[in-house]
């Protein structure tokens, strides 16, 4: 049985992992901090780790991408997209017997809202309009936020988190679907030393390769030439992002997602051309990318 490291029970990562693996038998190993999730697979305690890397509203999760580039050398093996449906969670008796839509809840009694910073940012319009008086506090995961609220009754504390998290900790959903945008999805990757085939009827699958490209210094037009190597071969880039190399101010590397498998002749020749320009190229992974958007829209309703 495969061992899967991920953030705590009741987090979006937990929901996403359950949906990805479906009925497949796996052992889920929950960790409080994302660094421990990475290190579990790096040390061999787990076979794979579930890592959220991008969100519709907040964009890339920079900390997690930096870990993949700088801290560990573990390839991406699977990618999938899952909806981030956040809810306001607490004890209904503290705020009134409201409906699942938040009607009847006395939001003026909310003194604090806790959540992961990315989840919090997805709900800022709701928070500012309903409970502007509340203190905002960031914690390591949405599940941790719900747990902290559970441990501090009677203080007017609430959490932004999942329905799974509320159920796990025995709290109430005070207001459901409080994200500011309906099309709020998170992109996850499964990292591990070995390729992994996911079963089930996943129709929306495409091949993707993630590259880290470092440009040579003092080479005017280097990025243009790199992009040209993909363009004239008609290779589609689904994402380009610059990140600091952490070696020198003003030095950046580029993360590029190419919708092509690594073994493709076109992609391998493009990489060869880029390397001939003096660029450094590192492959973070070449993997199947699953899209569950249509299926999970029904799951979350």
| The CATH superfamily title of the largest domain | ACT domain
The N- and C-terminal alpha carbons lie at a distance of 31 Å
Give the biggest sheet.
10 strands, mixed
Q: CATH topology of the largest domain, what is it called? A: Alpha-Beta Plaits
Helix content: 25-40%
Number of helices: 11
Pfam families: ACT, PDT
GO cellular component, one term: cytoplasm
Protein name: Prephenate dehydratase
Catalytic activity: prephenate + H(+) = 3-phenylpyruvate + CO2 + H2O
Keywords:
alpha/beta; disordered C terminus; 301 residues; Alpha-Beta Plaits; 3 domains; D-Maltodextrin-Binding Protein, domain 2; 10-stranded mixed β-sheet; phenylalanine biosynthesis; elongated
Structural notes for this entry:
The protein is of the alpha/beta class and 301 residues long. The protein has 3 domains: 1-84 and 184-197, Periplasmic binding protein-like II (D-Maltodextrin-Binding Protein, domain 2, 3-Layer(aba) Sandwich); 87-175, D-Maltodextrin-Binding Protein, domain 2, CATH 3.40.190; 201-300, ACT domain (Alpha-Beta Plaits, 2-Layer Sandwich). Helices cover 31% and strands 31% of the residues. It is built from 11 helices and 15 strands. Strands 1, 2, 3, 4, 5, 11, 12, 13, 14 and 15 form a 10-stranded mixed β-sheet that branches. It has a 5-stranded mixed β-sheet with strand order 8-7-9-6-10. Strand 3 and strand 4 form a beta hairpin. It is elongated and about 65 Å long. The relative contact order is 0.18. Residues 294-301 have low confidence and may be disordered.
